[in-house]
Structures are given as structure tokens and as C-alpha cells.
Specification:
Largest sheet: 4 strands, antiparallel
Oligomer: single chain
Helix content: 40-55%
Strand content: under 5%
Strand order of the largest sheet: 1-2-4-3
Radius of gyration: 20 Å
Structural class: mainly alpha
Order of helices and strands: HHHHHHHHHHHHEEHHEE
Length: about 325
DNA sequence: TACCAGGATGACT
DNA sequence: AGTCATCCTGGTA
């Protein structure tokens, strides 16, 4: 797919927030620590209105597909109950205003350094992830029924776009932007970058772009997983399974790496393109990528040493090589997409 | 210390 | 046979 969230690529590992979160947090903030029941997260506009809730903050969808279990730990620590993993937006703050409080609780402060997270904990987090992912997908489905539009933004007519805009504006109490996108089809919208959105609607363009990203991601995932019997295990696995394993073929390492690279939204923090055209990429977090690969192949003992050995096997085969100017953790696909 | 290069070997499909 | 995991030695930054 058109890699939703490409614009949300890594902002550097120094940030406490995962890259996928950065934009949304910046844009919208949310009610930290609020305890929500799952039932409350249904985007029933009527109920939401009556309750005075602007609606479910769908950007959690982004987060769920990250490997950032740290984030989930943070959220779940922040408030009890499953639904606490679903942030809920507050009315939009003034433009340029920074969120008063970052909802993220540093896991290290909780004595949960990323390297020490137990497998069991990860498993339960995955269960939480899968449940929340399911809820978010249901929410989008409900919205589609309400609006009578398809889940895939690429298929939207200009009328559908207007409906979606109205709905999103209403749900998230955004300034009206419908006129700005008049005559735009879903395809047009999908082709627009975050900057394009911002230029057209300075007040909430980035927010709209973020929400569109979520829809694109959901549509992409639905499409990829509607065929075949790929299991939905939740969170990151869901993404990874959604690709190569849908075909039933064992995944190759180079395919796996490419998949990660195609989802900067989710993995931009651990692997990213340096030059997509030339196929040059950098592994930003070698241990993380190795862990992902190990999990994917059910090899708990996988590490970057072994992974990199496998990458080097590709040298001879002409699949991956070191770029002309060799750099640490930087490789190049011989045949870029 | 982390990364890199590549040989050897065995498991698995 | 192909792919990959694993282990290894030795080199570099």
C-alpha cells in the first residue's frame, strides 16, 4: 500500500513517544489516565454526543501496530482496564499549543526496561493489542455503515470524501475543512502528504491526515487478510502475518526486511530507508529488528549477529549488498522496488 | 563493544 | 537443493 504514515517516519530514538504517536499526540493530545470501558469506545455518534465525548481516538490504531510494547505498558500502567489502551481525544487545543502532559509513562521509571520485558508480559500485551485492534476495526466498520462508504479511502468518490470529512470533523470537533477538499476523490486525498494537508487546512490538516492514515492502514490490512486464513494474533504480528504469511509461503529475511521498511509507520524507529529509490536502508535498532525476525520465525535465540549473517548470505545471491559507501547497519537492496 | 565478513555445519522444507 | 540458524575466527571502528 502507499505506506500510510510515511510522513510519520522516525523522529529519532531519543523521543519518548513512538514515531507513530508523535504526530497524533502533538495534534490532539488526549485524556491521560481516563478509565474507559470497551463499550464506551464504540463510535455511536448519538451516544457520543449525548455523553459529550468527541469520540474514539482512532489514532490508537497506529500505535497498536507498533512493536512498541513499551507504549502499551505505559498506557496500561496509566489506568486500569483494557480500554485504557484506547486514548480518547479531548477537544482540540489551540494551534501550536503543546500538550500539557504527555500521557506516556516511562517504562524505565516503572522498572520495566525494554530489554527486560518478559515474554509472558509481551504475550498478554499482544492479547490486549489484538482486542483493541479488533475494536478499532469494528469502529471503522461502523463508521462505514453510518456513512455508507467503503472502508478503503482509495475508492471514495468526492461525495464520500465529504462525508468522511464531515464525520471526522464532527467526531473530533475539528474546524470545517470540507470546502477545502471539494471535488477531491479519495485517491486524491491518499496521494496528499501531511504537508499538503497542513497547507490546505492549517488548523487541522495534520489531524485529518493522521485519521486518513488510520483508514488507509485498516483498508490495507483488510484487503491483505481477507484472502487466506492468516490468523489474527494481534498488534504487530497481525501486520507481519498479513504480508508474506498470507501466501502460506515461508517468509525470507529480505522480504521481512522489506515489509518492515514498507511500514515506517510501525517500524520506522528500528529500520528505515535512507534512500528508497536506491534501496538503501538502515537498521536503526539492530536488537529490535532481530527480535522481530526471531519472533516471526519462532526463533527466540535470534540476535543481530545471526540476522546479519543471513543478510550477508544475500551478498552472493545478489539480493542485498553493502552500499558503495559502506556504513554500519546500512544495507542496500540490489533490486530496489 | 558492536559491527562486519565469511567459512563451516546442521536442521528444515 | 535452497534457506536459514548457529557457531566460529578474525578484522575494524
Amino acid at each position: 500500500m502507499s505506506s500510510p504514515g510515511e510522513s510519520l517516519s522516525s523522529e529519532g530514538s531519543s523521543s519518548l513517544l513512538p514515531p507513530c504517536l508523535g504526530l497524533s499526540e502533538r495534534n490532539m493530545g488526549h485524556r491521560a489516565g481516563a478509565a474507559w470501558e470497551m463499550e464506551d469506545t464504540k463510535p455511536c455518534m448519538e451516544a457520543l454526543e449525548h455523553c459529550g465525548f468527541p469520540g474514539l481516538y482512532l489514532s490508537c490504531f497506529d500505535m497498536l501496530f507498533t512493536e512498541d510494547s513499551t507504549w502499551l505498558v505505559k498506557v496500561s500502567e496509566a489506568s486500569p482496564g483494557l480500554a485504557c489502551a484506547v486514548p480518547v481525544p479531548v477537544p482540540r487545543m489551540a494551534h501550536g499549543e503543546e500538550p500539557e502532559q504527555c500521557p506516556v509513562i516511562d517504562s524505565q521509571a516503572l522498572g520495566l526496561s525494554p530489554g527486560l520485558e518478559g515474554q509472558e508480559e509481551e504475550r498478554s500485551l499482544e492479547q490486549v493489542q489484538s482486542m483493541v485492534v479488533g475494536e478499532v476495526l469494528k469502529d471503522i466498520e461502523t463508521a462505514c455503515k453510518l456513512l455508507n462508504i467503503t472502508p478503503d479511502p482509495m475508492e471514495w468518490s468526492s461525495g464520500n470524501v465529504q462525508k468522511w470529512l464531515l464525520w471526522t470533523e464532527h467526531l473530533y470537533r475539528l474546524p470545517q475543512a470540507g470546502k477545502t477538499f471539494q471535488e477531491q476523490t479519495g485517491k486524491d486525498l491518499c496521494a496528499m502528504s501531511e504537508d499538503d494537508f497542513r497547507q490546505r487546512v492549517p488548523q487541522c490538516g495534520d489531524t485529518l491526515h493522521a485519521h486518513l492514515d488510520i483508514w488507509k492502514s485498516a483498508a490495507w490490512m483488510k484487503e491483505r487478510c481477507s484472502v487466506g486464513d492468516s490468523k489474527i494474533t494481534g498488534g504487530e504480528e497481525l501486520w507481519l502475518e498479513a504480508d508474506s504469511s498470507c501466501s502460506g509461503q515461508p517468509i525470507h529475511l529480505w522480504q521481512f526486511l522489506r515489509e518492515l521498511l514498507l511500514k515506517p509507520h510501525n517500524y520506522g524507529r528500528c529500520i528505515r530507508w535512507l534512500n528508497k529509490e536506491k534501496g538503501i536502508f538502515k537498521i536503526e535498532d539492530s536488537a529490535h529488528v532481530a527480535r522481530l525476525w526471531g519472533r516471526r520465525k519462532n526463533r527466540p535465540a535470534m540476535n543481530y549477529d545471526k540476522l546479519s549473517r543471513s543478510i550477508r548470505q544475500y551478498y552472493k545471491k545478489g539480493i542485498i549488498r553493502k552500499p558503495d559507501v559502506s556504513q554500519r547497519l546500512v544495507y542496500q537492496f540490489v533490486h530496489p522496488v
